[in-house]
Design a protein that fits this description.
- Helices cover 35% and strands 14% of the residues.
- The protein is of the alpha/beta class.
- The chain folds into 2 domains: 214 residues, Aldolase class I (TIM Barrel); 162 residues, no CATH class.
- α1 runs parallel beside α2 and α2 packs parallel to α3.
């Protein structure tokens, strides 16, 4: 048990089923890097569809054996449908109890929000009701300049930073250990260093940050990216920020060769995860739904009336690093930490296959590895000079190794 300001956290991590409810395809924003190409204000999940999905999922207890479960709510902007989410969560709790389901009291509700209506009365009521089993991440991209390059209102095109930032203090009061997720695209590379430091200054101690998996990169972006990360490394180490703050760019395990046998796993849980949309269609991940795809047809694996067709999940059973990667990726000397999105692999492939790995991120990963090596070499030298023990060094390494996120 872990207690934070009186909140009990009972959670069995790393052994959880991930189930996503796409409750709406609407959003107040039109973020330039957003992979959701089919956002609209018409498609929202009905209670009837949600209830059928829950009844089916909970009836499959013998198939879904994971000890814990994460019920993830996404959109669009999920808090636009807070009444529906509240009803879903209430029903899940009651049904898991009534069925004596093994997920009862071993579940989490997870929400990533743009933060615009976080202080809404209904949202706050929902949070108070579910707080002991709730994770909420607000997306704020950094400084006002960086944030407003991409995270703009639909219609007006105005930046959303000023409307998000006013809700950050309340969010951190309620979820002091939560992280934010920052996305990097070509246009905002020059603002990485100042943005991470800005987020630290707001009191956000963990910053999950990654480059988009799609292909927006220009010549020279990798060198500019590396320069920004080295400057960030200097600021973190020289300012002793590594003691209290972490970000996902600097991790001890990345940039090493990977054994094709021992490390031959898929990067994400596509095919193990489950997503359901407003039409009641099931997907191996929300990235395989139609409003997430630019070039391919949706990969539907079932629906709430007929259940899941296991034959449509067969291609995901043997997905691993080697079955979908080019030989140069398998043999790469800095392969560890180089990730992919299974949905983007499918969407950008030459044929309708999930077995062709997209490599647009390659040069950005290599730039990150070079900066990461710089960071750890500098930090180790500093700690040695200060007489820090190997045990304490290991604590810094363990804290830094944030698990990757999709």
């Amino acid at each position: 048990m872990k207690t934070v300001k009186g909140i009990e956290k009972s959670w069995k991590s790393n052994i959880a089923k991930s189930i996503t409810f796409i409750v709406t395809k609407d959003c107040q924003l039109a973020c330039k890097y957003c992979y959701l190409v089919g956002k609209n204000n018409k498609e929202r999940m009905s209670w009837d569809t949600a209830k059928k999905a829950i009844d089916y999922i909970l009836s499959q207890e013998s198939e879904m054996l994971e000890e814990s479960v994460v019920f993830d709510f996404i959109g669009g902007e999920p808090f636009l449908e807070v009444k529906l989410m509240d009803k879903i969560c209430d029903y899940l709790k009651v049904e898991m109890y009534n069925r004596q389901h093994h997920w009862f009291d071993s579940y989490r509700f997870s929400i990533t929000t743009n933060g615009l209506n976080y202080n809404n009365e209904e949202v706050q009521r929902f949070i108070k009701k579910n707080r002991n089993h709730l994770s909420i991440a607000i997306t704020i991209d950094g400084t006002e300049k960086k944030h407003d390059i991409n995270r703009i209102y639909k219609g007006s095109g105005e930046g959303s930073y000023k409307d998000v930032i006013k809700n950050i203090p309340l969010w951190l009061e309620e979820f002091p250990l939560e992280s934010t997720k920052v996305t990097i695209s070509s246009a905002d590379i020059p603002y990485i260093k100042e943005s991470v430091l800005h987020l630290y200054s707001l009191g956000i101690h963990q910053v999950n940050i990654n480059c988009v998996f799609e292909d927006p990169w220009k010549d020279g972006d990798d060198l500019l990216f590396e320069k920004q990360l080295i400057e960030l490394a200097d600021a973190i180490i020289d300012g002793n920020l590594y003691i209290d703050f972490v970000n996902s760019f600097f991790q001890d395990y990345i940039g090493k060769p990977q054994d094709p046998i021992r490390h031959n796993v898929n990067w994400c849980g596509a095919g193990i995860m489950l997503a359901v949309d407003s039409q009641g269609l099931f997907y191996p991940c929300n990235r395989f739904s139609q409003f997430s795809l630019s070039n391919k047809k949706a990969w539907v694996i079932g629906n709430v009336n007929d259940g899941i067709d296991k034959n449509k999940l067969r291609p995901f059973l043997t997905l691993n690093r080697c079955t979908q990667s080019r030989q140069e990726c398998i043999d790469c000397e800095v392969a560890s930490g180089c990730g992919w999105c299974q949905g983007e692999n499918y969407d950008s492939a030459d044929t309708p296959t999930a077995y062709q790995r997209a490599t647009a991120i390659c040069k950005m990963h290599k730039a990150r590895v070079r900066a990461n090596n710089y960071y750890w070499n500098k930090l180790y030298r500093k700690l040695e000079l200060e007489g820090v023990s190997k045990m304490d060094m290991h604590k810094f390494i363990k804290k830094s190794n944030i698990q990757h996120t999709c």
